[in-house]
Amino acid sequence: AFTADVVPQAPEDPLFGLMAAYRKDTNEKKVDLGIGAYRDDNAKPWVLPVVKEADDLLRKDPDLNHEYLPIGGLVAFNQASQKLILGKDSAAIKDQRVVSLQTVSGTGAVHLGSAFIAKFYTPKTAEAKAIYISSPSWANHNQIIDNVHLPVKTYPYFSKETKGLDFDGMINGLESAPEGSVILLHACAHNPTGVDPTREQWTKIAEVMKQKKHFPFFDCAYQGFASGSLSTDAWAINHFVDQGFELMIAQSYAKNFGLYGERAGCFHFVAAPAGNAQDTVARVGSQLAILQRSEISNPPAYGARIASLILNDEKLFAQWEEDLRTMSGRIKSMRKALKSHLDQLGTPGKWDHIMEQIGMFSFTGLNEQQVGRLRSEFHVYMTKNGRISMAGLNRGNVEYFAKSMDEVVR
Ligand code: PLP
């Protein structure tokens, strides 16, 4: 029954394919700038010291077992996650306007939100029942939204000319979307471009979205990773909450705790302050629980336990902030190093955007052919769209990468 015309061969996931090709490459100069995972100055995965400490504490706990978590996940983790993203003194939390479920990392949270929209969202016009993502966006957004049978639409985001935000294009896109559309926004450290709106621009985006009664869905995969400050990176979300929006948040702990494979994340629904918000979150929460139960039954425990231990302990929390500054600081220093090597080489083109972009990634502006040459001639691996994971650079390879780049753009 499952012949090729019914089930055609799907292409390999481009990012995971890239990783496999990198692993096979035996050249000692090879550089991995593909996957968005932090690497230390020796190009090695980094277990955050605070995570190591929490892990040791957990393993010593004689009461640790492998029982199921509740459907919504670890309660202490969910509560701490609310505080982390909305702030300790959040009015929304005090008013009990937030319902949160632990998810299978950020991907699971984006999925749960999308599934909820697909099942329950009833905008005035049928054409508003779609999720708008930035152009470009994290590639998986397309598939996750498509999987729940919602149309994926896009709003302009990146300017090829300035390699910065196409702010006018974005505003026009939001204005011309049907009233009440769901708009997916990257909370900080936009993937793949590394380009974030300024606070002034966020303020305008919120104004337009309010006028158009759009529904914000924030994807926050890099809190603390972009600027090094947890509250700075949550600013946009909190601005929208302060403006009285009803909204959803997908929160990932993959990058900021380095808990990639442990799949710790959280989904939040925040009801608007007007009306009977507590009743809304109770109803919404009950339906989210059914979605969760039918899909994963209950979330994985270990990563959430580690995160929860750190989030709920003042001393560990302070150490975590230190570790975040280590990661974001090293990435910023690599931006500087790359830019200054390109300056020294007199590489044709303008490269200021490398310094201006933020977070894990830089959208270099290298084209597909240049990316191809980097891989075949220089053993440098990056995605076809010219995105580099800044964390793949270190003091040992940044000059080699700059020289390789220099050769392919000449
Ligand atoms: N959203 C964005 C924008 C991302 O870049 C990522 C990871 O690359 C995720 C969500 C989800 O990551 P995870 O499922 O590993 O938490």
UniProtKB/TrEMBL annotation:
Residue ranges occupied by any Aminotransferase class I/classII large domain in the UniProt entry: 29-403
Leading EC class: transferase
GO cellular component: cytosol
Catalytic activity: L-aspartate + 2-oxoglutarate = oxaloacetate + L-glutamate
BP-aspect Gene Ontology terms: aspartate biosynthetic process
Cofactor(s) essential for the protein: pyridoxal 5'-phosphate
Pfam families, per database record: Aminotran_1_2
InterPro entries listed in its UniProt record: Aminotransferase_I/II_large (IPR004839), Asp_trans (IPR000796), NHTrfase_class1_PyrdxlP-BS (IPR004838), PyrdxlP-dep_Trfase (IPR015424), PyrdxlP-dep_Trfase_major (IPR015421), PyrdxlP-dep_Trfase_small (IPR015422)
A single MF term (Gene Ontology): L-aspartate:2-oxoglutarate aminotransferase activity
E.C. number: 2.6.1.1
Record PROSITE patterns: AA_TRANSFER_CLASS_1
Domain of life where this protein originates: Eukaryota
Keyword terms: Aminotransferase, Pyridoxal phosphate, Transferase
Other noteworthy facts: In eukaryotes there are cytoplasmic, mitochondrial and chloroplastic isozymes.
Quaternary context: Homodimer.
Family recorded in the similarity comment: Belongs to the class-I pyridoxal-phosphate-dependent aminotransferase family.
Name the UniProt record assigns to this protein: Aspartate aminotransferase
Organism: Meristemomyces frigidus
Organism lineage: Eukaryota, Fungi, Dikarya, Ascomycota, Pezizomycotina
